[in-house]
Amino acid sequence: MADESATLISPQELRGRSRAEFVYGHLLEAISEGRLRGTRIREEDIAKSLGVSRTPVREALQRLQERGLLTVGAGRSLMVVELGERQVMELYAMREILEGSAARFAAQHAGEEEIQRLYRLHETYIGAFDEPERLVPLNRRFHHAIHEAAHNRYLAQALNAVHDSIALLHSTTFRVPVRPERSDLEHRRIIEAIERHDPDAAEEAARAHIREARRTRFDML
């Protein structure tokens, strides 16, 4: 077992997170990028590669199992879950409902600073159109800002679980040439509805945004 005092993780990488949270984020990114697809996930291997003890790795793996991202395969080894078409449809259906609710609540509760933050994040997002790999985290930050502006902790928890499950899709719709530009317009409609404090328009704009992402996803299959 590795000694946690000899960790390879820098303080900058932790940024206030526990080691278990760091390991969880590292594994979630690896799942999203497809690096763990079809491979057996071994606790000791992860602990060694990250320079931590097996305790935070065990906690992170348990959380991934609870979120439905890992499953027990042959020989009781852990494997990344593979989603079928029906499961992808279910995931997007749930995301549409939750993102729509978040936008509705944001339109009701967002303050001026939160609205301006959405505009700033959106400007950063459209400045990265030529770098699809940057659009994914920027898009998540944008949506997370809406979740925070909704001021509903239970909705935020449900959305975090759904967004983590998106990692199982292993690819991004932003690689489709027209998708970033269309997403730009969709994001603007959401922000403008939130700024007008129009809950109905905000919810419909957010739900339409997720429906378009779903259509693009299935066009990629």
Question: What do you see in this structure?
Answer:
With 221 residues, this protein is an all-alpha fold. The protein folds into two domains: 4-80, Winged helix-like DNA-binding domain superfamily/Winged helix DNA-binding domain (Arc Repressor Mutant, subunit A); 85-220, Up-down Bundle (Four Helix Bundle (Hemerythrin (Met), subunit A)), CATH 1.20.120.530. The chain is 68% helix and 3% strand. Strand 1 and strand 2 form a beta hairpin. The model is unreliable at 1-12 (pLDDT under 50).
Elements, N to C (H/E): HHHHEEHHHHHH
- Give a short account of the largest sheet: 2 strands, antiparallel
- How many whole angstroms does the radius of gyration measure? 19 Å
- Which band does the percent of strand residues land in? under 5%
Chain-averaged pLDDT: 86
Spatial strand arrangement across the major sheet: 1-2
CATH superfamily membership of the largest domain: GntR ligand-binding domain-like
Q: Per CATH, which architecture of the largest domain? A: Up-down Bundle
**Unreliable spans:** 1-12
- Would you report the number of β strands? 2
What's the shape?
globular
C-alpha end-to-end distance: 42 Å
What is the C-level CATH assignment of the largest domain? Mainly Alpha
Number of domains: 2
The computed structural class is mainly alpha
- Classify the fold: give the CATH topology of the largest domain: Four Helix Bundle (Hemerythrin (Met), subunit A)
Residues in helix, %: 55-70%
Count of discrete alpha- or pi-helical segments spanning 4 or more residues: 10
